Structure formats: structure tokens, C-alpha cells
């Protein structure tokens, strides 16, 4: 099973590298000659790549449909019961010192889960158990691991689907469509990642002298443990941060976001049911700073898997740098932040497409996606006549309310900390002479953390609104003079470093120019589509510049970051000569050695001759 993109990679590989002819699906490579083959040792696995992988189909939830009924039941199950969520280390459940609650961001009086934070001793215990589990897990056959992941995709797609969607909607404030897309992405990760692993496992070093040696490469996990710090805004990405390293032979400490703990717990349970051994992934809710300090101070740290803000990624990097001399590995740091994503509209663009895509990208999930559009650049020739009125009219009519309502476009922001941060940005905007609020700008925290979708026109590209990641329902708009198109593009490339940028145009020459202008400042570049449209296997995503490490989640490249390959060379014709032929030393040595042997054998008789008396 593999994606079309991955198939292309392997097809190219096949055309260049020699392959072993004998193979069976899910089987091992058995060498027909040499010591390894004679002893029956099996170091690598070879997979057939004939079955395609497809993205999970999105369900529609029309009134009266089976999925609608299942979801309604799951929503009532979440709302009518406060779930206790433990700390789980090597299969054992623990509790911290103080009980905490997860509440829906749109209804602060309705707790849905009780949990506690792991203290330092528990985190250290989880590390030790992870290190122990990793040694055995890394020896588990790739084919056995793949079967677990395929079983997990099946469980999440069916048995756990509605439970995870309900927890995501209520716990994280996602609307039905957004939660359905999130869980579909989770299923995609569980299906595509094993397909990518098959691709990587099939790689073979060049073997151009098969009679004299055999070269193989096996994929090993990283010795030690991986710390996974997952975000609130994507249940699917949270799982991918944890279970992609695990698939590659690593043991993982999972610190879920407090604001997504219920949905993450259901994912953890689904993976255990699928067959992930206890201890391979340990579920460790913890206070952020405490967790970061403990894991980065441990010598067995092998890597950090993170998605969040760029500022937090920098803190983690600094903590690792401070302890670099005590590690047994060079820890792998894999992190993605949202950055400053943007839509850039060319005078040739279709205004309706630009408006519709921008509203969705900026305000779906209250602008809290790592790919949410934060800035819109519009030419003067389109702004007043084509874009301004529909943009403001539609934005002001968006319904903001409880995420469980079907007519809700977006709900509350995730928690009090996010609300306070966005409130301060709105205060800054209202007091800044270079910013003008065109619609929105109001917020309310009486029942939930609600912020109206806000559009603000910015007059100066050096303003903070044009540069800083806002992670909220605030869209900055800058109207540029048509004759300053290239100048504006250069400035955008300088100040907007993000996960995704989008350009809207019908002019093919401009699109080619945009490819070059925005070559480095964003990890993904979309043409005539919103910034929030990435799908696993189709548009692998990773940030540009200081926004992240751009490891392209949802592609084979991300798997390589979690393995430490070992290359094995088996020689069938070992060297016996010390010198090279051109040195003309080897033959001389053999010749001298032969003469020496002759002298040694004749030496006694020669001495005897010398000892004879002279007659």
C-alpha cells in the first residue's frame, strides 16, 4: 500500500538501484549466499507495493443518516459524564497531586474530564520505563508494527470515530466539519505512515559486485526516549507526533495538551487496543515547564516531537543546547509552528475565490489552525470594488456559538490564556493609529471565550499585526498600490515566515514570479486555494525559515527523522593482500618470502660444508 507520490519515489529508486528478485509480501529478505544467508539471519524486510492508499472519505452527517445518529449519541455521552483520565506509565495508572478539569471553551460550567499532572518523579519513572521498552520494541519486526497501525486505522475509522469526534468538538471547540476533518486526518496518518515505512524499508544500497559482497541497510529506532509535546488544535497531528516516532522503533513520552486531553485519551486507548505494547507510549499529562525541564535534563533524550508556536520551539531548543554535553545522543528536534500565513491577491485574481478562501482560512476554528490565514494582501484595483464589501458582509454574518450547533461557523477560542492574548491584540489594534477595525473587534468571556471574527486594515507593513503570529480570529488586510506589486511581494517574503502562503491569480507569469518570490519564507505555497487545505500524502506540510524544521509531516521524509539506519557490508572474498598492485610490493614480498624459506631449509647443509676440514 502506498500513495501515488510515494510510488513515484520508489519507482525512481527501482530504476536506479538493483533489487533482489525473490520477495514475498510482508516477508523478509533471505540472502542466498554469504554468511548471513547460510545462518538464516533476517536483518531487513521487503514489501510489495501494489495496494494503493487513499485518504479517508469525509462523512456528510445529513439529518437522519446513521453517522448523524451515532454522533448525537457520542456527544451526549461526553456531555453527561465527567471522564477520569489517569497518567499511564508502562500500563500502570497513576494520579498527580492536584485534580484538574477540562471544560468546553464555549461552556465553562460543563466539565467533561478530570485529570492531574505528573510530578517530576513520575516523569522520570516514565522515562526509565520508556528506555526499557524501546530496546524490545525496536526488535519488533516492521511487518508486525505495520499490522498494528493498520488495525488502529480501522478502529479509529469505525469503532472510535464518533467518540473522538465528540471529544474534539466539545473539548476543543471544533465544529462538526472541522472535527470530522481532524479525525479523517488521524486515520490518514495511520494508513499512510505504514505505507511510507514500506517504501523506506525497500531501499537497498548499491550492490554492483554481488559475487564479492552484499550491502544492506536496516532501520533502527533512536536509543533512549522521545518526548512528544502535542498541541490543542489538531487531534490528528497530536497522534502523529507520538505514533510516527513509535512506528519507527522509538518509545515515547506523550504530554498531551490540557485542552485536548479527552480526545487524546481516546486515541491512546484505541492504539493500545490495536496492539501497541504497554510502555512504548506513555501517557503523561504534565505542566509544560516541568515536563520540558525534566526531559531535556535526562541523558537518554533521543528526540523531541513538537507542534505549537515558534516561541515555544525556541525555548525547547535552548533547553537542549544548555544540556548538550550530557546527552548520549544528539537529540533530534522536530518542530512546527504556524508562523505568519498569508493570502496574496494579484489584480488578475477572481475576487469571489479570494474572498471565500480567505474567510474560511482566517476564521474556521476561530483562526487557531497552524495554517490559518493571518494576513491578506489586496491590490487597490480590486479592494474597494470587488473584495471589501463581500469580505466584510460575510464575515460580520458568521455565526459564533456552541460548537455542537450545526449552523455554527466557529466557536470560542481554546482557553483563558488564548482569550487574554487575543484581547490584548485587539486592545493594541484599537489604540494603533495605523490600524482600523473594519468589522468585529468584540469579545466576551461570561460563558465561554468568545471573540468575534475581526478584519483590521493595516496601513504600515512594519506594523506588528503584519509580522506576529496571532493564532486567533483576526485577519489583517494590507491594500497595496498595483504599481508596487513586486516591492510588496519582496516585503511580504521578508516579514511573513509561515507554514503556508497562498497566491490568487490567473496571470501565469505572475504565478511563476510568486514561486520565486516566496520560495523560502513559507514551507508550502498554494495557488488559488486557501492556506488551510493540506491533506496527508497530498500536501505534506512543514514550515519555512524560523517557523519550524520543515520535516513535511504526511510524507516519507518525516519518518527518516525518527530512525538511525545501520548499513551492513558482508564480504564474501576477504582481502589477503596488504599492498596494492601498483606498489609492486606484494609480489616481491611473496618472492622474498619464498627465497627465505629456501635459505632456511638449506642453511644446515651449508654450515656443515663450512665446518668440513680443508684437505
What is the gist of this entry?
By secondary structure, the protein is α/β, with parallel strands linked by helices.
Kindly describe this structure.
The chain has 615 residues and is of the alpha/beta class. The protein folds into two domains: 83-337 and 556-566, Aldehyde Dehydrogenase, Chain A, domain 1; 342-527, 3-Layer(aba) Sandwich (Aldehyde Dehydrogenase, Chain A, domain 2), CATH 3.40.309.10. The protein has 19 helices and 21 strands. The protein has helices at residues 4-16, 34-39, 66-79, 120-137, 142-157, 161-172, 176-201, 235-247, 261-274, 288-296, 310-322, 351-363, 380-397, 416-431, 464-467, 485-495, 508-517, 556-560, 586-611, and strands at 83-84, 87-89, 92-94, 99-102, 113-116, 213-218, 225-229, 252-255, 281-283, 301-308, 332-337, 341-345, 373-379, 435-439, 443-444, 450-451, 454-458, 474-480, 498-504, 522-527, 566-571. Helix 8 (235-247) links the parallel strand 7 (225-229) and strand 8. Helix 4 packs across helix 10 (288-296). Mean pLDDT is 90; it is low at 1-40 and 605-610. It comes from Drosophila ananassae. Residues 606-615 have a biased composition (Acidic residues).
